[in-house]
Design brief:
With 449 residues, the chain is an alpha+beta fold. The protein contains 18 helices and twelve strands. The chain has helices spanning 15-18, 60-76, 91-99, 115-120, 128-133, 143-147, 171-176, 188-198, 221-224, 245-261, 266-272, 302-305, 343-353, 356-366, 379-382, 387-394, 408-425, 429-447, and strands at residues 21-23, 49-55, 80-86, 106-109, 150-151, 154-155, 158-170, 200-201, 207-212, 287-293, 311-314, 329-335. α2 links the parallel β2 (49-55) and β3. α2 (60-76) packs antiparallel against α14, α10 runs parallel beside α17 (408-425) and α17 runs antiparallel to α18 (429-447). The protein starts with 14 loop residues before the first helix and ends with a helix.
């Protein structure tokens, strides 16, 4: 979930044998304690359905939490037993497992970026008819959380924890610069003005403190595009609009920061010094404002690495006042691969994940934002410092997701490459986006949405 996905090319390695370690999830015994199998009555119930869940988490704490979730299901559902297999997953492995006819019954990927491509290529199953058959109730799922799993008006996955991004800012630096920590910037112009006051140079002209760096620690493309009214494709998902005036203005906004602050590669050199994760410049005070995800509030991140840092969080500034307070969201995608041995049983487990206890367990473990309306006011989550900012962001009526089209990987990678060329290679924003739009349009025309 923290790392953007890579390509969707088919690979020859089967998922179940290619990566991850099998972590057997305990299941109830099929006969009563003290009774031998031979003594079991001939009319005893049929053997339980056994499903394999391949999930993306591999850290000790993550696996322990997910196995707790699986064990609770197994204890309550002796007829459907789930075996978890942990470890990072990539798109090639899932596609190869389906192509080879031996997919896991369920998959949880730590990013939804592959969903549209999987749906387009029929690697995963559409869930609507399956969920209807088990009379699933999706009413507690935040509406925006289903958007990043919807392709061509069909639902192809369920959200299991999600990420969103906000502006983190050093409140001590705000105070020292004469800025009010209770009034973070709400527009790009305000962000520019505040950053100018917060930026500090060394005698040699290098940057001691960057007020803000638009493309660090992430290019922040999906996180900021909609706040500049830049839409990657039109409403029909058939025309690429990456080179619209709004998108060109958005790229020029990035360029302005580098034109002003990257003299003698000052920004590039400062970024090169960042260590210890995404907050590596923010934690030690070399960056006053930064766009980061909600997980940085988790116990393993800023509280551990910079326990004395005074900071706050706020929505990312927007040129449109109506969109201030909205944010980009994506997350962990539960999917049922084509060829699953029992899609209905898998869907029942998926809907179990859409309940409070399993969702809360993994959200706390991963310092994630819940996908359930019921958890937006959960005392355990709202008590986490700064968490309310992110809970409000995902529930905003204008929260947005990436375009759910098959060529999104090309859009994502192409934008990152084009931006790099503009910022440090001297490329023209308009031409760069014209070229990219033309390239992606050709792929969209050939492959369809």
């Amino acid at each position: 979930m923290r790392t953007r996905f890579v390509s969707l090319a088919m690979a020859s390695v089967l998922l179940v044998t290619a990566c991850g370690s099998s972590t057997p999830s305990p299941s109830p015994a099929s006969v009563a304690p003290g009774e031998s199998a031979a003594a079991a009555p001939a009319s005893q119930a049929a053997a339980p359905i056994t499903l394999t869940l391949r999930y993306c988490w591999g850290g000790e704490g993550e696996v322990k939490a997910m196995e707790k979730v699986i064990s609770a299901w197994n204890a309550a559902n002796p007829g459907i037993q789930v075996k978890g297999i942990s470890g990072s997953i990539n798109t090639e492995e899932v596609a190869a497992a389906v192509a080879g006819g031996a997919p896991p019954d369920m998959v949880i990927m730590c990013d939804n970026g592959a969903v549209a491509g999987f749906a387009h290529d029929k690697v995963i199953m559409q869930l609507d008819p399956i969920l209807d058959s088990i009379k699933a109730d999706k009413s507690d799922i935040i509406p925006a959380s289903l958007k990043w799993l919807t392709y061509q008006n069909g639902l192809y996955g369920l959200p299991f924890g999600q990420d969103t991004w906000a502006l983190y800012y050093n409140t001590d630096m705000f105070t020292a610069a004469g800025l009010d920590p209770a009034s973070p910037p709400k527009t790009p112009d305000e962000l520019w003005a505040d950053a100018a006051k917060l930026t500090k140079l060394n005698p040699d002209g290098s940057i001691a403190v960057a007020g803000f760096i638009p493309n660090d620690p992430d290019p922040n493309l999906d996180m900021t595009s909609n706040l500049f009214d830049c839409q990657y494709v039109d409403d029909t998902s058939t025309k690429v609009t990456l080179n619209s005036p709004a998108c060109v203005a958005w790229f020029n906004w990035y360029k302005k920061w580098y034109d002003t602050y990257n003299k003698n590669d000052a920004l590039v050199k400062l970024i090169a010094t960042r260590t210890n994760g995404e907050a590596g410049l923010f934690d030690p005070g070399h960056q006053a404002m930064v766009i980061m995800g909600e997980w940085e509030n988790g116990a393993s991140y800023i509280p551990k690495n910079a326990p004395n840092l005074h900071y706050d969080t706020a929505p990312i500034p927007s040129i449109n006042p109506d969109k201030y307070g909205a944010a980009f969201i994506n997350g962990n995608a539960f999917m049922i691969p084509t060829g699953s041995s029992n899609p209905e049983a898998a869907a029942k487990f998926g809907m179990y994940l859409m309940t409070d206890d399993p969702s809360r367990t993994m959200d706390i473990q991963n310092a994630s934002v819940p996908q359930l309306t019921s958890l937006l006011t959960d005392p355990t989550l709202t008590a986490i410092p700064h968490e309310k900012t992110f809970l409000n962001l995902v529930n905003h009526k204008d929260a947005w997701v990436t375009p759910m089209i098959s060529v999104y990987p090309q859009i994502h990678d192409g934008l990152a490459s084009a931006l790099s060329n503009v910022l440090t290679g001297g490329a023209d924003p308009q031409k760069s986006l014209d070229d990219l739009a033309s390239q992606v349009q050709a792929q969209l025309d050939e492959n369809g949405p």
